[in-house]
What we know:
- There is one protein chain.
- The protein is an alpha/beta fold.
- The protein is 23% helix and 29% strand.
- The chain has helices at residues 17-28, 43-46, 63-76, 138-141, 157-166, 186-193, 291-310; strands at 7-13, 33-37, 80-83, 86-92, 95-100, 103-112, 116-118, 134-135, 149-153, 172-176, 199-202, 205-213, 216-224, 229-234, 237-240, 244-246, 277-279.
- The strands form 4 sheets. Strands 1, 2, 3, 4, 5, 6 and 17 form a 7-stranded mixed sheet that branches. It has a 5-stranded parallel sheet with strand order 8-15-9-10-11, covered by helices on one side. Strands 12-13-14 form a 3-stranded antiparallel sheet, with no helix packed on it.
- A hairpin with a 2-residue loop joins strand 12 (205-213) and strand 13.
- Helix 1 runs parallel beside helix 7 (291-310).
- The longest helix is centred in the C-terminal third of the chain and has 20 residues, at 291-310.
- 42% of the residues are buried.
- The model has no long low-confidence stretch (mean pLDDT 94).
Amino acid sequence: xxxxxKIWDVIIIGAxxxxxxxxxxxxxxxxxxxxxxxxxxxxxxxxTDKVDNYPGFSxxxxxxxxxxxxxxxxxxxGAQIELGEVQSVTTxxxxxxxxxxxGEFKAKAVLIATGTSYKKLGIPGEEEFYxxxxxxxxxxxxxxxxxxRLVVVGGGNSAVQETMFLTKFASHIDLLVRGESFRASDVLxxxxxxxxxxxTVHFNTSPxxxxxxxxxxxxxxxxxxxxxxxxxxxxxxxxxFIGLLPxxxxxxxxxxxxxEVGFVVTNHLLETGIxxxxxxxxxxxxxxxxxxxxxxEGATAALYIREYLKHFDK
Length: 314
C-alpha cells in the first residue's frame, strides 16, 4: 500500500465491530478511511461461537458471519484494511502520526477501537503451554479436544458460554469458579444445567499451576479456598475465561489518558482530550462490553469525526 505521503482523513486502530461500524459511516461520507488490525478482522466477536442478542437476527448469528458481513459492508463503501500493528501514536501539528509494523502512516483524525484481550491467570505452566494445551478461544481450539477431558476456569458469562460450546467435543469438563457463585446471568446458569452430564462445577476453587510433560498438559493443580484443600484435576487441555483487559499498551507516551486499568478515558463526545483523537467500544472506560453498543459507539464516533473534519485547518 502506498502510504508515505498520503494523509488519511481518519485511521481507525482495530477492526472489530466498533471499528467496522465507524468505517461504514465514514466511508459513506467519502471520508478516506484506513483500519489497522493486528489480529482477527472482527476482533473477539469473530471468534465467538454464537451471538444471540444482536438485533436483527432472530435465531442468532455466528460471530464470524456477523464480522464478515460488517467487513464486506465497510469495504463496499471504500474502507481499506491493513493487517499490522500500531506501535505508537504521536502528533505533528494537527496531523496524527502512527508508527506501525507496516511503516509510518498519517491522518487528520484517529479512532482508537482496539477493544480488549483475554486476561491470564499468571500461574506456573500457563505461558509454557499457551497454545499447546492452554487456550482462550473455544471456537478456535475446542475441536482439538474431541472425547478429551478439559478444565475451564472462570465464572462469568464468557466462561459459561464457552463451557457449553466445548461440550460438543469434550468427554467431561471441570469448570473451576474462584468465587462461591457464578457471575454469569441467570439465563446462562439455567442453560448450563442442561449439560450436567458433562460439566462438573467446582466453586471456591483457584488454580495454582498447570502441569504437563512431553509438551502436553496433564493436570491443573488447584486449591479449594473454602476448605483449604489441594485438588488435582486430570485434563488434556485448559481454557481460561476470567475477564478482559484493554488493548492500549501502544498508547504509552501518546498523551491519551487511561484509567488505572488501562481503559481510555473520553468525554461524552468520545474525545480523548487530544484534538482529533477519539475512542469508542470496549477499549473505552465505561463501555458496556456488548457488540450492539460497540457498533453504536462506532457510528457515533464516526459522526463526531465527520464534524471535526469539517473544521480541520480552519
